[in-house]
User: Which sequence fits this backbone?
């Protein structure tokens, strides 16, 4: 009887030992790939307690969390012949633990090598401006290039980002001068545009003030108020605008009178000259008439001379 009890206890102990040796715990962030007699089972084990066949099954745990892998700095020449150094970071995760365990020996190393070669390739296909400004498109291209071989390994590339672009010092100085010149150009354009708009507004204001003279006086009073608000020793002597207008009108009236007097004086002088000319013409006509009458009544024969008289007496 005692031997039977001992045998039962020994068998139970052996059973517990075998059961314990075949029991495994899979964490929430892992998946278990079971190899039975060297062949991988088609389905993986979910998180929790799982049992394996002792001496026949072997389980490999695969982490399914998102892995952040930095890509070492890669030096290359861009499409526009600029030497740059670029580093990036890759975010990926395992979607098929079975394929990740059997299709590739070390998927971390494989993804890293593919990321480096893809980064060098994308540098050679891109311009410097694209590396500095249009990075979203480059990120999408890098993710597509890395995801193509990684999909066969049961790995999905979530995102690829370029962290830094290192430029040569000479190129940095050239870009700094270019940016400074561009800012100077923008400043000049903005200043010129402001001057143009100010000139337009001043022209509009001058037209409004010319149509409404009261606006000029109001503007003068406003200027006086603004100057008086400043706490300084400036003395402002406002001159009435109406008095200026009076002087302006008086000056114009005086100029008109002077011009009128000049015109009248010229007319009088012109009339006197014409009258004198008419008097001279009348005098000439009278002299000509007298000469004509004198010629008409002159004697027909001339009187004999002293030499002819003695001859007649003989």
Assistant:
């Amino acid at each position: 009887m005692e031997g039977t009890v001992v045998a039962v206890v020994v068998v139970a102990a052996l059973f517990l030992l075998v059961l314990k040796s075949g029991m495994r715990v899979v964490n929430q962030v892992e998946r278990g790939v079971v190899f039975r007699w060297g062949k991988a089972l088609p389905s993986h084990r979910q998180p929790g307690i799982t049992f394996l066949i002792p001496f026949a099954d072997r389980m490999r745990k695969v982490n399914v969390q998102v892995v952040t892998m930095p890509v070492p700095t890669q030096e290359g020449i861009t499409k526009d012949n600029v030497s740059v150094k670029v580093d990036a970071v890759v975010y990926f995760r395992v979607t098929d633990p079975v394929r990740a365990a059997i299709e590739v020996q070390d998927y971390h190393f494989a993804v890293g090598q593919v990321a480096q070669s893809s980064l060098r390739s994308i540098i050679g296909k891109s311009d410097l401006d694209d590396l500095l400004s249009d990075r979203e498109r480059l990120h999408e291209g890098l993710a597509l290039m890395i995801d193509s071989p990684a999909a066969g390994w049961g790995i999905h590339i979530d995102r690829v980002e370029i962290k830094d672009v290192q430029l040569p010092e000479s190129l940095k100085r050239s870009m700094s001068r270019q940016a400074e010149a561009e800012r100077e150009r923008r400043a000049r354009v903005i200043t010129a545009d402001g001057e143009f708009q100010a000139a337009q507004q001043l022209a509009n204001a001058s037209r409004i003030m010319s149509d409404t003279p009261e606006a000029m006086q109001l503007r003068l009073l406003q200027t006086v108020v603004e100057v008086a608000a400043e706490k300084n020793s400036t003395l402002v002597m406002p001159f009435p605008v109406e008095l200026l207008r009076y002087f302006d009108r008086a000056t114009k009236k005086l100029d008109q009178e002077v011009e009128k007097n000049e015109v009248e004086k010229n007319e009088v002088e012109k009339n006197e000259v014409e009258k004198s000319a008419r008097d001279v013409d009348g005098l000439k006509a009278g002299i000509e008439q007298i000469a004509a009458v004198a010629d008409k009544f002159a004697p027909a024969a001339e009187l004999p001379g002293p030499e002819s008289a003695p001859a007649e007496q003989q």
Q: What stands out?
A: The beta strands are 23-26, 30-36, 39-40, 48-51, 57-63, 67-77, 83-94, 155-166. Confidence is low (pLDDT under 50) at residues 300-314. The longest strand covers residues 83-94. The longest helix spans residues 241-296.
